[in-house]
Amino acid sequence: MGMLVATDVTKTYRSGVRANDGVSIDVAGGEVFGLLGPNGAGKTTLVSQILGLAKPDAGSITIDDVDVVRRPEIARRWCSYQPQAAAPVDGLSAREAVELVGRIRGGEASKVRRRAGELLSALDLGDVADRPVPMSGGMARLTGFCMAAVVPGRVVVLDEPTNDVDPLRRRALWELIRNLADDGAAVLLVTHNVIEAERCVDRLAIVAGGRVLAAGTPAPLKAQLGAPLRLECTLEPDAASPELPEGLVAAGLAGRRLVAHVQASGVAAAVAWARRAQEDGIVAEFALTPASLEDVYASWVTTEGAA
């Protein structure tokens, strides 16, 4: 049984929109659990209920076997949270904001000060951490993460933690997220950045339309695709989408980016086709890589959208 367990959670708004439709997830201590889905999938509504900020119409939510629907104050005490919106830190420096939250959460002053310094330094914010100036979007996101991590709860909920963050700091941020779980927290990572999340998550659930479409560890979910490889092509500007040969199954076309699934036995034929398309001025460049969580995500969400 997980540290955080949501079972058959349903939430319908007065407008008639059903944001959650029997959602069940469980997150163990020491685990990073990814909640992946497009905008409007019901992720934020579920988070609000986990944090005790909204009440489900049906279903249960427990943290360490305590019913937090009946006792929402426990949820707020045992969870630390980085919201999708930037943290409200006007008038404070990053260090002041992080240390203030750490003290509010009951941390000892010296430990909070040391932990805040470690987090800010790891994210390369040391030079700007003491300047009470308007923050860029990326700095505000990183400060919000530090506020959630300075005295982490038993459950740490991170909603799109890498939005607006530059690539180098994103790498450090994923390391810190992993460290939170390694130190025993149950980390719920809410994101639509599937490619980056794959580096960090132990298990995940793909949600769309308020329902869990698929859940499990990355490897079995990728195996369900039935094709272990992906051919990713960048089309030339103004080139029409090419007709794929037998053995290649289109997984999606977004702008100039075409992705297809490839069986291991069809690798030679797929590469030969891509090279011909390149010579014909249809494909600018291509790459053959192992299937990823992005493929799993696209497969399930596309199917849901077509249903």
Short overview:
The chain is an alpha/beta fold. It has helices at residues 43-50, 72-78, 94-104, 109-122, 137-149, 167-182, 194-197, 218-223, 267-279, 293-306; strands spanning 4-12, 18-27, 31-36, 58-63, 66-67, 79-82, 155-159, 186-191, 203-208, 211-216, 229-235, 248-254, 257-262, 283-290.
Helix content: 25-40%
State mean pLDDT (0 to 100 scale).
90
| Tally of individual helices | 10
What is the second-level CATH architecture of the largest domain? 3-Layer(aba) Sandwich
CATH superfamily of the largest domain: P-loop containing nucleotide triphosphate hydrolases
Q: Could you explain how this protein is built, in words?
A:
The structure is a single chain. The protein has two domains: 4-221, P-loop containing nucleotide triphosphate hydrolases (Rossmann fold, 3-Layer(aba) Sandwich); 226-290, Alpha-Beta Plaits (2-Layer Sandwich). It is built from ten helices and 14 strands. The chain has helices at 43-50, 72-78, 94-104, 109-122, 137-149, 167-182, 194-197, 218-223, 267-279, 293-306, and strands at 4-12, 18-27, 31-36, 58-63, 66-67, 79-82, 155-159, 186-191, 203-208, 211-216, 229-235, 248-254, 257-262, 283-290. A hairpin with a 5-residue loop joins strand 1 (4-12) and strand 2 (18-27). Helix 3 crosses helix 4. It starts with a strand and ends with a helix. The mean pLDDT is 90.
